[in-house]
Amino acid sequence: MHPVLAVDARFCLASCAACGLVSTAPALGEEEILAFYPPAYFGRHNRRFNPLFEWLIRVFRARRARFIERRARRGRLLDVGCGRGLLPHLMRARGWEAEGIELSDTAAEHARHVLGVPVYVGRLEQSPHPAASFEVVVFWHVLEHLAQPRSALRRAHELLAPGGLLVVAVPNHESLQARLGGRGWFHLDVPRHYHHFGLEVLQRLLADEGFEVELVSHFVLEQNPYGWVQSLLNRLGFRPNFLYEILKSESARTEAHPILSHPVQSLLMLLALLGILPLSAVLFTVELVLRRGGTVEVYARRRPSTGEAPTL
Fold it and tell me: Which residues have C-beta within 8 Å of that of residue 60, sequence separation ≥ 6?
């Protein structure tokens, strides 16, 4: 492993000399990493943001559902790391058989008990689902949180029917945001992100595990414009992800009233936003033109295994 970036006194990024994948070092074990997912990480009733942003989340989920329906035949969908279950709940309302997977009962509580979404709690590799039983498997900003992404993709290939659709969204370590943001890049999120995928490395990994990439989208309104805003604020020396903290619901914050606790910082940040918002719009356009978005959406098709007949 070759050092890439010192994030803080404890963690750094390092790249694999053999495959080029960038990972967090040292990588924490399953018990250690749980400390970085306290109840506030999910928020009360799994609501992390204020009402306006919660509405926007639902708008983006609906866009995602429509995009999936344009690329896959209706059937069964598995949302890996489904969180509060918004996507499978929406897909079920649209006539799909959709369910989720989560690592903890806390994370799955809203999906199970409020929305009525079937959720398997545990590792994807240990799930009881039969082979070739899904038309779509989704990893939406989940793959970077998995210590063993290759085995997760291998299991996804097993669960998908031949010709099934794999949907992956990840932060793009090869992006302009990552380069200019440095250790202040909003999507770095060490140590919760075990891995930091560049698009080239991700595509190679997908090919190795039996997938053929059909589409890569850098036009990610849900993530990329805000990624620029927060990364630039971080680089200017404001409290790390301070604006993001303000936009959260009170139950998901580390401080109940961040504006009142840091009034001068809040005022200076408001003034800085007058310049940062238009600059972020320009940078978002530039990354689209250069195809180096801060996060990317990848849509890939499961190739038939040896002996399987391709589906039409």
Answer: 221, 222
> Is residue 273 within 8 Å of residue 229, measured between CB atoms?
yes
pTM, two decimal places: 0.93
Residue 223: CATH number of its domain: 3.40.50.150
Q: Can you list the alpha helix ranges (DSSP code H) found in the chain?
A: 30-34, 39-42, 51-71, 86-93, 105-109, 149-159, 176-181, 199-208, 224-235, 242-247, 258-261, 263-290
List of the chain residues with pLDDT < 70 = 45-46, 306-312
The reply to whether 26 falls in a domain is: yes
Give dist(CA 69, CA 102) in Å, integer.
23
Could you give the angle at the alpha carbon of 99 between the alpha carbons of 153 and 71, nearest 5°?
Answer: 65
Helix axes 149-159, 199-208, angle to 10 degrees: 50
| pLDDT at residue 284, as a whole number | 98
- With contact defined as beta carbons under 8 Å apart, do 153 and 209 qualify? yes
Question: How far does Cα 50 stand from its chain's mean position?
Answer: 20
pLDDT at residue 312 in the model: 39
| Inter-residue contact 185 to 178 (CB < 8 Å) | yes
Does a structural domain hold residue 307?
Answer: no
How many other C-beta atoms are found inside a 10 Å radius of the C-beta of residue 91?
25
- Give the DSSP H/E element, type plus range, for residue 162: strand 160-171
Structure-token pair, residue 65? 């559902």
Q: Is 165 exposed, middle or buried (0-12, 13-18, 19+ CB in 10 A)?
A: buried
